[in-house]
Each structure stands twice: as structure tokens, then as C-alpha cells.
């Protein structure tokens, strides 16, 4: 069982500071993140940790934010045991239920079984919840689909349950890559191909539906690549950002020829739907 170093950041102002910090740390071998009341906690395997692991994290030098932190070696934890203690099933619009393997199965249209370990995407976070809502409202049957930044592959799994195929699920994080493969198999999905990498993998690809639940900076950076491989009439579902980020996201989408269709909002998080 790997040992971890945990960094606990206090970020002022928290928004959008914590999101920017997470994006920059995501370029390092940090495996998981937890939003806290005052900022962010980030975890890295001890074997990948070095004393200068934060040396080129630019936001730490920014005058716009005040960021302090402390770090600690985390005692070995049975993550599955922690997961079982803290996870409750998620019900979305009485249509889709996200549960762990140890939860009782009940009669619901889409029953998704997820064991995320340290990956993102249980349905608990507002962004995943809203992306599920968008997918429930969208006809994806027979449509070639991309789940970009797939985390646990929960959205790819729901897409297949709704008839989408074939489906590519991509994540830059090795833990997410492995976990997505496990979860796709657990839900008897036969049309999902999981890849480890970033938007460079999209070269020469084309999709009818693109799902991207990542964060503002990565979305803006990769938006042109998404549009390049989105078929005419194709659908782009975006989340991972706050309400105040909408103008930047919308400008990027509309200047590339996309048309806004719908917004979901949960607390201060938002999810947007566009059509090409």
C-alpha cells in the first residue's frame, strides 16, 4: 500500500485561487485533491515526492493570492475502508443512481456501480451531478462519445447505458486510468475504450458528443482541440468551473462557432451545453 504526503493549503481568495492551484498541481504527480473550507488539500505518493515539488507552482508567487501551506506524511490508510464509511448513494432526478458495490441495488433506470478509490467522480461533487443531469436530458444513442478527464468513467458509463457507442474515456492520471477500466468492467460496459493521456490524443479523432468535466484553465487551453474533433451538429458538455467563469468559457466557445443551449447550476458550480 503506497504512502502519501499530504499538503494542506490556505488560499485567499479561495475562488478562483484553489481551482488554479489544483490545475497547476495536477501537472505534478499529485493524485488526489480535496476542497476544504479555506482552500485545498493535495496528496502525492511519497515515492514521487521531492523537497522542491512546489518550486515552479506559479500561483504561489502571485501577488493576487495569499497562499500558505503545511505538509505531513499520511499514515497508511485503507482507502476502500474509508470510502465505505463515508459514501452514500447518489440519486439524480429519480432516474440515475450512483452507488458502491456494497450498497443494495434498487429499481432505477440507470444503476451505476462505482468504486472510485482515490479518483474523482462519484456524483457527490456538484459538477459530476450536473453532467449526469445533462446526459439524462440528451439523446446519445448511437453517438460516438468522448469523456475527457474521465476520473472514474462514471459519465462514460452512463453514456453507454443510454446507448452511446463507441466511447473513448481519457484521463491524464494513471490512477484514474486504471480505476476507469475497473469501473467500466464492473458495469459490464463493452463499448468504452480507456486511454491515459491528454488532449494530444484527440488528433485525427471525431465525436458526436464530447463530455469535459475538468477545470477552467484546461478547458480554455484545450477548447480548440475539442471543437476540431466535434462533428457538425455535435454536442459539447462542459463543467468544472464556477458561475463567474461563464463569460470566459462562453466567449471561447462562441468564437469557435458553438451555440449555447442550456446551463445547469448547483451552488456556485455550473455546467454548460453547446452544439456545433
Automatic annotation (TrEMBL):
The protein's Enzyme Commission number: 2.1.1.-
A Pfam cross-reference name: PrmA
Main location: cytoplasm
Cellular compartments per GO CC: cytoplasm; ribosome
Superkingdom of source: Bacteria
NCBIfam families hit by this protein: PRK00517.2-2
Matches recorded under PANTHER family: ELECTRON TRANSFER FLAVOPROTEIN BETA SUBUNIT LYSINE METHYLTRANSFERASE
Chain's role: Methylates ribosomal protein L11.
Protein name: Ribosomal protein L11 methyltransferase
Gene name of this polypeptide: prmA
Amino acid at each position: 500500500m503506497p504512502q502519501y504526503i499530504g499538503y494542506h493549503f490556505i488560499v485567499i481568495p479561495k475562488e478562483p485561487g484553489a481551482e488554479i492551484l489544483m490545475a497547476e498541481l495536477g501537472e505534478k504527480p499529485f493524485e488526489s485533491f480535496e476542497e476544504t473550507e479555506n482552500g485545498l488539500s493535495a496528496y502525492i505518493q511519497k515515492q514521487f515526492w521531492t523537497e522542491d515539488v512546489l518550486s515552479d507552482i506559479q500561483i504561489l508567487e502571485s501577488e493576487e493570492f495569499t497562499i500558505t501551506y503545511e505538509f505531513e506524511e499520511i499514515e497508511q490508510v485503507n482507502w476502500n475502508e474509508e470510502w465505505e464509511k463515508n459514501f452514500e448513494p447518489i440519486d439524480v432526478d429519480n432516474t440515475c443512481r450512483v452507488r458502491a458495490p456494497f450498497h443494495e441495488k434498487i429499481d432505477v433506470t440507470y444503476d451505476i456501480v462505482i468504486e472510485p478509490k482515490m479518483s474523482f467522480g462519484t456524483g457527490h461533487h456538484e459538477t459530476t451531478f450536473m453532467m449526469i443531469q445533462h446526459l439524462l436530458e440528451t439523446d446519445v444513442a448511437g453517438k460516438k462519445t468522448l469523456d475527457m478527464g474521465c476520473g472514474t468513467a462514471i459519465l462514460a458509463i452512463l453514456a453507454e447505458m443510454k446507448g452511446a457507442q463507441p466511447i473513448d474515456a481519457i484521463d491524464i492520471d494513471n490512477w484514474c486510468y486504471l480505476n476507469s477500466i475497473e469501473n467500466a468492467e464492473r458495469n459490464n460496459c463493452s463499448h468504452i475504450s480507456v486511454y491515459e493521456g491528454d488532449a494530444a490524443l484527440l488528433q485525427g479523432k471525431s465525436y458526436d458528443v464530447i463530455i469535459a468535466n475538468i477545470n477552467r484553465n484546461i478547458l480554455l487551453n484545450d477548447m480548440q482541440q475539442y471543437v476540431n474533433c466535434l462533428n457538425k451538429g455535435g454536442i459539447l458538455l462542459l463543467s468544472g468551473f464556477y458561475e463567474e467563469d461563464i463569460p470566459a468559457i462562453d466567449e471561447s466557445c462562441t468564437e469557435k462557432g458553438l451555440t449555447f443551449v442550456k446551463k445547469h447550476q448547483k451552488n456556485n458550480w455550473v455546467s454548460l451545453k453547446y452544439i456545433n
